[in-house]
């Protein structure tokens, strides 16, 4: 899956989850691009992938809480 | 432990310049997250559910954020509870700023304290500037954005400790 397909699919998922899915999409994109401009998932090290997933996982926790409140 | 509200214009050194840069940016946005937000790698996003008793739940942790550097490699899914259990004094000391920021106050502070990392025999003086403000990521309620940076004094203390380590073997 290329990065654009990934981001498109993510955007759809987030749009269902939160009112402002496009904002979350921008956030995820910014997290991914903060790794020295890498954009293909295969270019990331295992640690970097874990870091990205943990960050997204923790943010989704926060945003679900902010959505419910 | 000492926490002082401080005008960002009076924050010194590179840390002060970075805080001023983020402050300028936030002044010119409507509070919604913008992918061009400066210093993204150094930012931490937390929940805006902040009572002042504990550090709120932590979401995004920038790769070069101060908290990541201080507490490198010890955290998984729940960053905040790890900090709470590891250093309750630190947790309580810094919690108040998050509570004020969640009420809509953009917080600028100088924090000076001693922390005792696991295994350390003496406290280590810590001195840093921080900015906390609300940020909206598409949900009805905001999250908090936090930029924390060591002051020049902290940097020099760190250098001194490093230098002293080199002297001990002699």
Summarize the topology.
The complex is a heterodimer of chains A (69) and B (170).
Chain A: H1 3-17, H2 21-33, H3 46-68
Helix pairs in contact in A: 1-2
Chain B: E1 2-5, H1 13-27, E2 43-47, E3 58-61, H2 66-70, H3 79-86, H4 88-102, E4 107-115, E5 124-135, E6 143-150, H5 152-167
Antiparallel strand pairs in B: 1-4, 2-3, 2-6, 4-5, 5-6
Helix pairs in contact in B: 3-4
Radius of gyration of chain A (CA) equals 12 Å
**N/C terminus separation of chain A:** 35 Å
> On the 0-100 scale, what is the average pLDDT of chain B?
83
Distance from N terminus to C terminus of chain B (CA atoms, Å) equals 34 Å
Give the uncertain stretches of chain B in residue-range form.
none
Q: What helical percentage do the residues of chain B reach?
A: 25-40%
How many strand segments of chain B?
6
Strands of the widest sheet of chain B, in order across it, are: 1-4-5-6-2-3
Number of helices of chain B: 5
What string, H for helix and E for strand, traces the elements of chain B in order? EHEEHHHEEEH
Beta-strand percent range of chain A: under 5%
Rough outline of chain B: globular
Q: How many DSSP H or I helices of chain A?
A: 3
Quaternary class: heterodimer
């Amino acid at each position: 899956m290329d990065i654009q397909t990934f981001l498109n699919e993510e955007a759809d998922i987030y749009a269902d989850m939160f009112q402002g899915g496009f904002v979350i999409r921008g956030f995820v994109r910014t997290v991914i691009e903060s790794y020295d401009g890498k954009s293909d998932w295969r270019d990331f090290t295992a640690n970097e992938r874990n870091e990205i997933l943990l960050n997204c996982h923790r943010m989704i926790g926060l945003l679900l809480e902010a959505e419910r409140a | 432990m000492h926490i002082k509200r401080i005008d960002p214009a009076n924050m010194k050194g590179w840390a002060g310049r970075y805080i001023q840069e983020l402050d300028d940016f936030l002044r010119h946005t409507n509070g919604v997250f913008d992918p061009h937000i400066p210093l993204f790698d150094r930012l931490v996003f937390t929940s805006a559910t902040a009572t002042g008793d504990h550090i709120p739940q932590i979401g995004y942790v920038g790769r070069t954020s101060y908290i990541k550097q201080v507490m490198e490699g010890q955290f998984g899914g729940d960053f905040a509870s790890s900090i709470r259990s590891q250093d309750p004094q630190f947790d309580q000391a810094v919690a108040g700023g998050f509570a004020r920021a969640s009420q809509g106050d953009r917080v600028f502070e100088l924090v000076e304290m001693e922390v005792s990392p696991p295994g350390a025999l003496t406290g280590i003086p810590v001195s840093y500037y921080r900015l906390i403000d609300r940020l909206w990521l598409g949900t009805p309620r905001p999250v908090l954005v936090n930029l924390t940076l060591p002051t020049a004094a902290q940097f020099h203390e760190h250098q001194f400790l490093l230098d002293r380590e080199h002297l001990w073997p002699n």
